[in-house]
Amino acid sequence: MPTGKVKWYDSEKGFGFLQTDEGEEVFLHASALPAGTMTLKNGTRCEFGVAEGKRGMQALSLRVIEAPTSIAKGSRKDAEEMAIMLEDVIKMVDGYANSLRRGRYPDDKQTEKLVAVLRAVADQIDV
């Protein structure tokens, strides 16, 4: 069974391409993904069957061998720092929600700050 890596995969379109260890491109349709898998990250090592399709080689019954290592995961803050950050985020979001409960949106500066903090925390949490 051939092995290779995910070259790219678009979950919205439901297809992408694999690159075999020999350098060949293989079409990957969503129907070939393992049950419960909705998307694949670029660089994911996998094993797959191959068949000749209308436009060339097409992957069949893909099996993930190894997910790519996450750069973000390696540069994460430690758990205690993240807990403190999340507590601060909760306070910020709560203050924002209180303004909304009083029938008004917070000013643009406060909104920009909240959005920046939420993005930074999401980047730390994302794997």
Please trace the helix and strand order, writing H or E for each element. Answer: EEEEEHHH
Category from helices, strands and their pairing: alpha+beta
Mean model confidence by pLDDT: 88
Strand arrangement across the biggest beta sheet = 3-2-1-4-5
Unreliable segments of 5+ consecutive residues: none
Q: Biggest β-sheet, characterized?
A: 5 strands, antiparallel
Shape: elongated
For the termini, the CA-CA separation is: 29 Å
Structure write-up:
This protein is α+β, with helices and mostly antiparallel strands and 127 residues long. It has 2 domains: 3-66, Nucleic acid-binding proteins (OB fold (Dihydrolipoamide Acetyltransferase, E2P), Beta Barrel); 71-125, no CATH class. The protein is built from 3 helices and 5 strands. The chain has helices at residues 71-74, 79-101, 108-125, and strands spanning 3-10, 15-20, 25-29, 45-53, 56-66. It has a 5-stranded antiparallel β-sheet, with no helix packed on it. Helix 2 (79-101) runs antiparallel to helix 3. The longest helix is centred in the C-terminal third of the chain and has 23 residues, at 79-101. It is elongated.
Any descriptors?
elongated, 5 strands, five-stranded antiparallel beta sheet, alpha+beta, OB fold (Dihydrolipoamide Acetyltransferase, E2P), single chain, 3 helices, 127 residues
